[in-house]
Amino acid sequence: MSATQAEGTPVNAQALGNVRVLDLTRILAGPWCTQTLADMGADVIKIEHPTRGDDTRQWGPPYFRTTDGREAHDATYFASTNRNKRSVGIDIASPEGAELVRSMAARCDVFIENFKVGDLARYGLDYESIRRVNPGIVYCSITGYGQTGPYADRPGYDFVFQAEGGLMSITGERDDLPGGGPQKVGIAMADLTTGLYASIAVLAALNHRHATGEGQYIDLALLDCVTALASNQGAFHLVNDLDPRRWGNAHPALVPYQVFDTADGQIVVAVGNDAQWGRFCQAVDSTTLAADPRFARMSGRIRHRETLLPELQALIGRQPCAHWLEAFARCDIPHGRINSYRETFQHPQIVHRQMAVEVGSDDGEGFVRGIANPIKFSATPIRYPRAPSALGRHTAEVLTDVMGLDAAAIDGLRQRGIVTCHEADPVGAP
Fold first, then answer.
1. How confident is the model at residue 2 (pLDDT cuts 50, 70, 90)?
2. Which domains are present in the chain?
3. Predicted TM-score (pTM) of this structure
4. pLDDT value of residue 428
5. Three-state helix/strand/coil letters over the chain
6. Which residues belong to the active site?
7. Rounded to an integer, what distance in angstroms lies between the CA atom of residue 233 and that of residue 166?
8. pLDDT at 403 over 60
9. Which of 68, 102, 237, 420 has the highest count of CB atoms within 10 angstroms of its CB?
């Protein structure tokens, strides 16, 4: 066992098989982080309200189903971010429940929470309190605006941060075109980005602890993370003191790089340099375009985009998708169909990469389908030992294995309403 590993943490053959995580997160950003860690082998203990559980359990319909057709009581939204975890129902608002969590934290490597600023201090579950029982803990707090600053106490959801962080200002069609105006991204980009940053931060802090023996506190804000996501667009503003504009499905510095209508559908074409432009002209069989000096260089195609693009649309609109997919593939031009998710998960490359997985349900009957973790390790592959669990499914198991409590002690906690144990998880079960 590593000198910095929490005492009693089980070890498995995965990359994080020696790490135990105490997960007090809900909704999306925090659970996305902890699911990522769990996929890599961490023992993630998800602490939930004993009767309501994670808010997203109720965010249905739709409710997730096992492959044999049985519908669960929890929403698909919950299932998408909570596999590979052990669910424990504890009332942290009670002194006895809070003490139980503190004692559990003493046996963990990582503590992750996304409560409002200051909330957990009321229960003695803030960083300073946890550090007193476990000085080496890596404690990660995820909030909307961060722990400090004039907005620190404000609530917020992903939609708000996509707006305030500038992402919506560059997402959507141009104002002068039909449907123009700012749009949010079709997934909760601020939440998911924050979850990924949190995963990176936790792994870095664990490495620091391995080298020095020191734990530390991590302060992550959704607004910070979605602002950092601005990358080249944000840098464009900072360097030039100009605001990037919306381009819809077009690109400000690459032409052609957009959606085109074919005779029977839509495709995306992305020409990234002048050599590709030459091959593109071969694919569309146009010696006229290839010979036109206005379009020979990317700078010319940008300047003359309003002339060039209608010509390209006219050419591409004459043939069906299948024709262009074959032509662009033959000429080595980046391209693709605009797929629905049904079509995406039938895509031959997605099938080959096994991006849909089936995870065994708690009762051993049927499987739950989900999206695979995209990380491909050569020595410590991702595994999926647990489907999203019923609320309190592992309460007795964790209190026995991690805390060393016996059946009578667990039953007493349950009778006093401090914990909840799922009926499929009998008290004292091994």
1. very low
2. 20-229+356-420 (3.40.50.10540), 257-342 (3.30.1540.10)
3. 0.92
4. 35
5. CCCCCCCCCCCCCCCCCCCEEEEECCCCHHHHHHHHHHHCCCEEEEEECCCCCCHHHHCCCCEEEECCCCEEEEEHHHHCCCCCEEEEEECCCCHHHHHHHHHHHCCCCEEEECCCCCHHHHHCCCHHHHHHHCCCCEEEEEECCCCCCCCCCCCCCHHHHHHHCCHHHHCCECCCCCCECCCCCCCCHHHHHHHHHHHHHHHHHHHHHHHHCCCEEEEEEHHHHHHHCCHHHHHHHHHHCCCCCCCCCCCCCCCCEEEEECCCCEEEEECCCHHHHHHHHHHCCCHHHHHCHHHCCHHHHHHCHHHHHHHHHHHHCCCCHHHHHHHHHHCCCCEEECCCHHHHCCCHHHHHCCCEEEEECCCCCCEEEEECCCCCCCCCCCCCCCCCCCCCCCHHHHHHHCCCCCHHHHHHHHHCCCEECCCCCCCCCC
6. 191
7. 10
8. yes
9. 420
The pLDDT value given to residue 376: 97
37: pLDDT strictly greater than 60:
yes
